[in-house]
Amino acid sequence: MYAIIAGGGKVGFFLARELIEQGHEILIIENNSERAEFIANELGNVVLRGNADEASTLAEAGAERADVVIAVTGDDPRNLVLLQVAKRRFGTRRTIARINDPRNESLFRMLGIDATVNATQVMLSVLEQEIPRANLVPLLRLRNTDVEVVEAVVDPRSRVTGSALREVDLPPESTIAVVIRNGSAFFPNGSTVLEPGDEVVALTRGIHEPRLRSLFFSER
Amino acid sequence: MGCGRVGARVAQMLTTAGHEVTIMDVTSSAFSRLGPEFKGTTILGDGTDQEVLKRAGIERADAFLAATQGDNRNIMSSQIAKHVFGIKHVVTRIYDPLRSDTFTALGLQAISPTIIGADAFYEKLTGEPAQPLSV
């Protein structure tokens, strides 16, 4: 795989180092000459000094034959624009953006960026996994939609325990897809009765998530 | 968006012509360019932030102009105006001719001061019309 990494800060540097170790061909585009020199000393001849948001730099980097362009600068507008240029002008197959402001995630998807990574969001999901009260964990969002796959552990005080699923007042546009009990998964039906400690994987629209959350956790 | 020399001037021209104008900038001192007679509204904030755009009233705007010094910020905010808020009339300043080409193809109405300036200089220098340069 040939990967172009725009931005040679900490994220770009360590990403490059790991990809090289895995045997991939990479090129880092870094604007700061001192930083570019540092990277070259550490990782070898894998740095192009220049502005990744200028089309001529992407051309020089060989964006046309790149399998992926990854934008990891600390500047969201720059990451967005350079990936759009890579896609539109050079036909880059796959574009991945680091997003700094979590609110930009859906915008980037809407504007054609294939995948986004947001450190704040990752921290939040880890926190949510560790804070018992808020343990409706978003697993993933189905691409280009507002449908989310979420996971929850049924709280003993929750209203859903002890009654059959057909009696449970689920929010609209929400489905309980899988239940994991004592380590084994099964597909529930209307007569399934949820027990405290059951892990539930559900599909829902983002806007219904708070209701789903209160269903699994609020007291009877 | 952007209260530099160009943004401030366009804002003044628009209010003089009777239009309602809100102008944004990330630096409050930039608004001094508007002069004391300015009739429009000023908003301190970054136009690539959707919340700031809402605060500026973008949901009821007829037109949006991005004229900051940064091509990327102009392009991002213009795409937000066009695709998130559905503004029909969006104009974007893009200095870099290559990015200007690319985003014109993606449906933005781009104005490149670099191309306009170079063409004007060429015509003054040679007395002949400027020819498009393939890039």
Notes on the protein architecture:
Helix content of chain A is 33%, strand content 27%. In chain A, the strands form two sheets. A six-stranded parallel beta sheet of chain A has the order 3-2-1-4-5-6, with helices on both faces. In chain A, strands 7-8-11-9-10 form a five-stranded antiparallel beta sheet. Chain A is an alpha/beta fold and 220 residues long. Chain A is elongated, with a radius of gyration of 22 Å. The mean pLDDT of chain A is 87. Chain A folds into two domains: 2-119, NAD(P)-binding Rossmann-like Domain (Rossmann fold); 131-217, Alpha-Beta Plaits. The longest helix of chain A is centred in the middle third of the chain and has 15 residues, at 76-90. Chain B is an alpha/beta fold and 135 residues long. Chain B has one domain: Rossmann fold, CATH 3.40.50. Chain B is built from five helices and five strands; from the N terminus they run H-E-E-H-E-H-E-H-E-H. Chain B has a three-stranded parallel beta sheet with strand order 3-4-5. Chain B has a two-stranded parallel sheet with strand order 1-2. Chain B is globular and about 45 Å long. The model of chain B has no long low-confidence stretch (mean pLDDT 95). The A-B interface holds A 53-56, 75-78, 80-82, 84-85, 88-89, 101, 103, 107, 110-111 and B 48-51, 70-73, 75-76, 79-80, 83-84, 96, 98-99, 102-103, 105-106.
